[in-house]
Structure formats: C-alpha cells, structure tokens
Amino acid sequence: MDALLFMIFAAIAVVCGVNLILQTHPISSALSLIGVMGALAALYLLLGGEFIAAAQLVVYAGAIMVLFVFVIMLLNAGTEHKTPMGKGTWAKYAGVPLLVAFLGLVAYLVQSIVPATDNVVFGEFRKGTALEIGRALFTTYLLPFELTSVLILIAILGAIVLARKEID
Amino acid sequence: MNFFILSIIKAAVVAFILLTALAYLQWLERKVLAHIQLRVGPRRVGPHGLLQPLADVVKLITKEDMIPSHVNKIFYLLAPFIAVMFALIPIAVIPFGGDLNIPAFTVGGVTIGPIHSTMELTDLNIGVLFILGISGLGVYGVALAGWASNNKYSLLGGLRSSAQMISYELPMALAIATPLLALNSLSFRTIVNAQSGYIWGFIPRWTIFQGPFPFMFIAFILFMIAAFAETNRVPFDLPEAENELVAGFHTEYGSMKFAAFFMAEYCNMVTVSCVATLLFLGGWHPLFPEAYGSNFIPPLIFVGAGLISFMHAASPSRPLDRFTLPVVGLVSFGLAAIFMAGIFLVPTVGAALMPLFWFCAKVIAVLFVYIWVRGTLPRFRYDQLMSFAWTFLFPVAIVNLFFVALWVALT
Asked: Chain B within 8 Å of A12 (Cβ-Cβ)?
C-alpha cells in the first residue's frame, strides 16, 4: 500500500516537474510547480514527516506560490517566445546521451555511497511530529535556527530598501 | 477491510449531510437576511420555502452551460473544481462528537460486530495545520477563475482575493496559535478534550473562558474577523463587490460552475465555523452541566418546534400548509422522541447524539453570526481592508500571542 502510494505521488511529482519546464505559459508552469509541492508534501507524509508535510503545504503551496501566481497575474505575463537555437545546435544531439550519462553517474554514486541497510522503511520514522521538530529546533539546532531567522529578516529589510521609491 | 468499509460509510454520510447542509445554509441566509430587512424571503416552494434549495439546484443544473469564447478554456474549467475540492477536503479532519460505540447486532443472519470508532473521518494529530494548509490552497480557485475569464472585472476580483487571503492568513494563523499554545496540542480531539469540565461548577471550561481571560477572548474575535476575510464574506467581500466589479471573479461563470463557487464559499464558512467551535467554543461540550439538565435542551427545542408547526397548521396561510406543516411538526416530535429515548432508554444512542447536538448547535450559532453581520455591516473600501489587516489586526494578534506565551511560560 505504502509503496503503491509512493509510486503514485512520485509519478505526479515527476510529471508536474517535467510539465513545469515544457509549458510555455507562466501560469501553467506555476500551477505545475504547485503540483510538485503537493506531491512532495504527500511523500513527506508517507515517510512520517507530518509536520514537514503540513509546513510544505502552508508555506510553499499556500503562501509562496500564491505570491508567484499573484505577480504573474498582476504583470499579465504572456506566453514565452522560443528563441532560435543558433550556436547551441550541438546541444540538440548531445543533450539526451549526456543526460543519460549524468543520471547513471548519480545512480551509481548513490548506490556506492549509501549502504543498502540505510534504506527507508515506510512508517518506521517516528520523529516527524510537531513535538519532536520543535524540541530539536529549540535545543540542538537553536543557533542555526536563530541565525536563519536573522538572515531572513535581513533579506526582507534589503528587499524593502531596494524596492522603496525615494519620496521627496 | 473493516476499516475501509467503515471509512467509506462514514465519508458517504458526512458528504451527504454536508452537501445538504450547504443547500440549507443558503436557505437560512436568505430567510435571516429577509427578516433583517423586513421582508419574508423565500415562501413559495414548500412551507416557508423549505424546498427552495431543491428548486435552486434543479434550476442551476438545467441552465445552459455556456463557455464564453474569450476565456482560457483549461483554467476556466479547472478553477471551479479547485475551489470546491479544497473547500471540501478540510471536513475530513474535523471531529463532530465523542466516541461512537455500536454494539454487535445481526441483520439477516450476518453479525455486524461491535464497532468502535470516532465521530470524524480521520484523527490527524496535526489537524489544525492540515486545515490551515488546505484552506490556503483554496485561493487558487478564485485567483485562477479571475485570471482565466479574460475580463478586467474578473481579473481585479482574482487579484483582490489573492492579496486579501495572503494578508489575512497571518492574523488568522496567529489567532489560531493562541489556543494551541495554551492547550498544548495540534489535534482537534485533544484540544476539545482539554476544554471539558466547568469552572466553579457552572462556567464551561471553553478556551474563551479559560487561561488569561481577556487574551483568549481577543484571540477569538481576531480569528472571527480574519475568518470573515478568508471566506470572502461581507464586510470583506471585495473579490465579488457587485457594485464595483459586476460579480468579481465569477462574472463569466454560469450554471453549475457558478454554483460550484457558491458551494465552495458556503463550505468554507462551515469549515471556519467548525474550527471556531472546536478551538474556542468547547467543541461538543454542553453549555452548562448535565446535572442542571443540559440533556433536556434538545428534546425541548424540538418539541417547541413541533408545537409551533402544529399551531401554524391550525390556521394555515396557504391551503397546502394544512398538510405540509404537520409533517414538519411530526418530524420535530420524532427527533424529540429520539433524544428522550437516548436519555432514558438507550444510553449508547444518547451518548452519541448529545455531543453531536451541541456541536451542531454551536456551529449553527456561529453561522448565524456570519449572516447577521452580512445583514448589518457595509463593505470596506479596498485600501481600508489592507491597512486594517496590516496596521491593526496583525500587530494586535502578535501582542496577544506574546502575552499568552508569557502566561504559558510563567505557569
């Protein structure tokens, strides 16, 4: 059952991810990205990371992507135009073999580095609850957590300073 | 296997009741609004227009399903589906009552074994976060509908709704976090169980009466204000402000697609009312202790409804009322009899029905407030709406959360 669900959601994630690149309209791409986020949330849930799954939905699918869609709608961005290939024609022929080689390399590295006993078993991981995450964030990883918060705050302030118009 | 059958049955029952409730919520809204404005509201179809929702559904289904030529077809058709889907999903994690224990019984030689279950579809221990996440996705339906319609009024409506929902999600999340912090859980069932019992024997230990007193109450008010905006209801119904934007995001929609948006809106209202009831108003715990006779409230209400029906049937305003109103009266008496039987004869039925009654009563009360506000308040202007969210609601919610956190840390 778990394996079947995993296959379904993994397939949705991959299809949406490919669709994200293939679509020429920004709204279609944004919606595909939301599909990827939703499928990832379901995968987290399958692995036992229920808090991460909820956070994925609330933050990425619910907040950040709404902002993306909002901006695309506000600018009324139209369909992208394909640029002619020009100098990069050799990419047309070398692209697919290189991609296969790259995927093979990644698969080989993962196989050789990660021992087979470290395989994930569905339902075995029990530290994904809000309680465990909160405890880890505010004890073991307190410093990185606070530093990240400050970093994000600085980023927000920077964005406001850059975007603000000079008012005389 | 048992689990699957039970889940399917529960899902079917909940879906049927929810969809019927949505249709009748529309009837209730029209009736209450009419009486606020000194009209009588729907009256022609059935006694007091009770069959009006059915007539509306037939009308909407049989209408011509037209697609304007200038729309972006895929997204235009997708938007109502998204809106309805993300409005219906949150009901899955909302508990309606306590435990459900059905002893073993035999039907036609087949013994259906003792069933122990809970009165909800699934008990997620991050239920509150799940609802926040899913309801946050509902905005895509509205935004896409506005954009795909290729109409400037619709686009403005869609843009307004996205901006409004992003802005009001923050104070709403902060207001929801307040009771979670004080009651120390993310599961609805645990939260409601933490609200059982009474202070001094008669004040219910609901969240709004608990803890640091004014702060919980402020959190409840903040939650309700933000929830009104999240569900696009008056006084925050800017996405469909009819005197500015024709009908906003659903200008170009007709027939069932139009109805889908209405269903989503009413469904969101029900969800938000359920969340308010569970987090702040004590879930299915009664208003006052059983020792003072809170169990006799439901039969009394239904007997009263039955008597009123029969009284009106005695002097009917329309000829058909002589037949229809007694039926309504008999149904009310039947419900009263079921509750009385639950109290005195079959305690298992009573134990299942009482929490359900109190939960529904509270949800209906919150829904009534929704309609009441719609009949009372005028609409905000758009800049007022935004500055209200960011310069008033958000800071107040943060300060409120801070004080509750301080209180939790000190005790």
From this structure: no
